[in-house]
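User: For a benchmark we're assembling, each entry needs the component sequences followed by a predicted structure for the full assembly. Here are entry 17's components. Please fill in the structure.
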Amino acid sequence: MKAKLVDYRLLFIVLAANLALSLWRPETARLAALNSTGFLLEVLSIVPPVMVLMGLLDVWVPRRLVEAHLGPDSGAVGAGVAMLLGTAAAGPLYAAFPVAVSLRKKGARLANIVIFLGTWGAIKIPMILMESSFISLRFALLRLALTVPCILACGYLMERLMPEQELAQTEQELAQPGAVDA
Amino acid sequence: MMSAVLYGGTALAVFVSWRLDPEKTRRALRIGAKSLHGLAPRILGMVALVGLVLALVPPEVIRKLFSHGGIGGFSLVAAIGSIVTMPAPIAFALVGSLFKLGAAPASLATFVTTLTMVGVMTAPMEISCFGKRFTLLRQALSFVVAIVIGLAMGVLL
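Assistant: Structure for entry 17:
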C-alpha cells in the first residue's frame, strides 16, 4: 500500500476545481477551503490513532479469536458480534474501513464485514437518541427495526455476489503498491 | 473531546503494549504507519472533495430541496444523502431542522440511512481498502435498502 502520484489524482482534480471556482466565485471557494480544513482536523483527530490501534490489534489479537467469532462458521453469533462491534464504536464510517480491513485480515467472513460496516453507519445510540428527541421515539425504533434485517440481508447477499476467490485476489492486489486506480 | 479520548486511549494502549513486548509494539506501529501512509492520498482527496461539495451544497440548499414531495422528491433525498458526507453533529442538526420544516418522516428515514450507509465521497477510501467491486456493490445495496426503509416507514408510521 505505497502511495503513488496517481493516488493523488482526486486531490489534484478537486484543487484545480477550487482554483477555477476562486476566480469565478471567490466566496464559495473560501467556504470550500474552510470546510476542508475543518474536515481535515476531524479526520486527523480520528484516523491516525485508529491506524495505530489496528496495528496493535494486528500483532496482539490471535487470528483464531477473530475466526471463531466472525469467521466462516460463526453463523448467527458472528452476525451478532459484528453488529455489537459496529454499534459500540463511535465515529464516522470512514473510520470503520481500517477496522474492517484488520478484521478481514484476521479471517472474518465477508457477510460479517458488511454487517459491521452497515451497523457502524446506520445504528448508533446517539443517533437513536437524536431521532427520538427531534422526531419521535416511534420513528427511531421503527427505523431501527427495519434497518437491522436489511443490513443482515445486505451482508449475506454481498457474500453471494462476491466470490471468495475474487475477493482474495482483490485483497492481494491491494496489498501490492500502487495497484488500484480509482 | 472524542479525539482526546481516542488519542489518550491509543497512547495508553501503546504504552501497555510496549511494557509487555517492545518488539511486537514496534511491529504494530510500523503496520499502522504503513497503512496510514497508503491511505493518505485518498484521504486528502476525500477531505478536499467534502469541503468543496459542502460549499456548493450547503445545508440551506438541502433544506430547500426537501420541500419537493412525491417520488421525485424521495429519489432526490436519497441521492443527496448518498453524495453528501457530513460530520455527525451537523447531520443531526440538519435532520432536526428538516423535520421542523415539515419534511415527511419517510423521506427523513431514507435520508438518514443513505447519509450514514452510502458515501460517494468516502468511496475512494473504501476502494483502497476493499476494491472497486466490493465498494460499488455495498453502496448500491445500501442505497436500495434506504429506499425500502423509507417506503416501509411511510406505510407504517
